[in-house]
Each structure stands twice: as C-alpha cells, then as structure tokens.
Amino acid sequence: MEQTYDRTTQDVGNMLCMEHVNVTVPDQTLATLFYVAGLGFTRDPYMMVGTDNMWVNVGEQQFHLPTRSPQVVRGRIGIVVPDLEALKQRLVSIKGSLEDTAFTCAAENGHVLATCPWGNQFKCHAPSPEFGNMTLGIPYVEFDVPPGTAAGIGQFYMEVFKTPYALTQDINGGVARVRIGNTQQVIFRETDRELPDYDGHHLAVYVANFSGPHRYLQERGLITQESNDYQYRFEDVVHPETGRHLFKIEHEVRSLFHPMFGRERNFVNRNPSQNLQAYLRGRDALVA
Questions:
Q1: Which of 71, 128, 136, 209 has its CB surrounded by the most CB atoms within 10 Å?
Q2: Burial class (CB in 10 A: 0-12, 13-18, 19+), 233
Q3: Residue 221: left if φ>0, alpha if ψ -120 to 50, beta else—which one?
Q4: CATH no. for residue 66?
Q5: What is the pLDDT of residue 235?
C-alpha cells in the first residue's frame, strides 16, 4: 500500500526563528559569572563589547543583557546544552560567588534547573529528538498566563502570523505551544497563581511575511514602535475575535531584509570544557 503522511507536522508558519531573548541586568560581572562561566555560553566578540550591554551566544540564538534594573521573564527559558554533567559542575563552581543573589541550581528528572542572580528561571536539557538537531540553543520560552487565555493566545498567533499551534490541557489548565521554525516554540501555560506586572523583557523574531502582521496590528492600534524599514514592535497579545487583552510580551519583529538576518549562522560558540589542566589543541570552538 502507498505510504501516507500527516503533512501538517512539517508546517512552520510565518515565524521562522526566535533570535534572542532580552532581559536587563544590573551587574555585568554577575551576568558574566552566570551566563558565561556557569551556563557555559559565549560573549559575542564583535557586538556590544562595552560594560553597559552584553550579547551572549547560545548556538544560533542569543541573550541580550543591557545594564538596567533587572527584568524577569514570567515563566521559564528552555536551554539545550551538549553536556548536562559538565553544566552541573560549572554551576556548582560559581555557587559561592553568587551566594547573596537569587541564584540556585538543581538536577531534576533528567534536566537541570538554574535560576539567575535576579530570578530568571532556566530549564536545561540534553540534546534529544524533541529538539530536532539542536545541540546548543534556546528551543523555547515558556510563559505563565492567566486562566482561560491559552486558546485565544494560540489563535492570535495563528490569525496574525499564520503560525501553527497546539492546544493541550494539564492539571492547571490550557497550554498553547506556538511553533517557530522547525526547532523552537513559545509556550503559554495557564496558572492560577498571581502573575507579576510586565517589566519590559522581550523576544526578537524573524518573519517572512513582514507586512501582513503589521497591517493587522496597525489597524488595531497595537504597534508600539516603528523602528525602521525592517523592524517594528508590539506588546499586546489579544483575542483575534473579541480584541480582549490576553497577555503582554514585547515582540521585536524583524524582516528577512534586516541586516542581521543570517548572522546567527556565524555566531562564535566556545567549548566550555576547555581548561588549563586538560587543554586539547584545536578544540577551543564548540563543534555543534
């Protein structure tokens, strides 16, 4: 018999990739300890090399860390790292230097949980088929959202960005998983816990159809910044039928004409296992 396939599993929609997560930090030294020495990531050697901002490479994604009052994502950031055991050792090694901060780390059910000095939570995974061929990167950001909003949030992304989403239920309510490209997701998980006020953290995404979402958002007064020819921003996720506000998270929306599109394929990623005691010639760069 002729083989049949579910072709919808290969749909990626209009959002092609999530390029960076931006959270502000008050102390670049502590940020370096956590993101570079602890998590094992790499400071971008070419951009934002001063003391008031740091871009940190994570495979083909980045964290942008400007110096200001701390911002905390209302949820969790998913990370894939090549070696969980090495990650555990690095996090333990920085524990003493971060003891007067919100830093924590723990191994749990096959992954590692880490909290940055200001409260951002990271769920670190080993490479697996769940994350495609990603061996280092940011496969998802998961937001806690109010009860009864997950379905509408998924519909917003489908309507505005033509992006597939899956809606499931867990013990706390709905979970909307919005697909970005072939290896990333933005997840919206309902909770009845009181959520903190939005503090301005943001995501940057590249889209193929740049004008369509802009037209939808502009008609509803949702554009918050007309940055330039190849970028705009919005914050409010609304129900596409009623217009009801559902969640606030700034999106830095970039076109494929953005001068930095494609730069992620050339990000420098170091091999964090290199050290003076066990140095291996020719292994400074991470082979992903």
A1: 136
A2: middle
A3: left
A4: 3.10.180.10
A5: 98
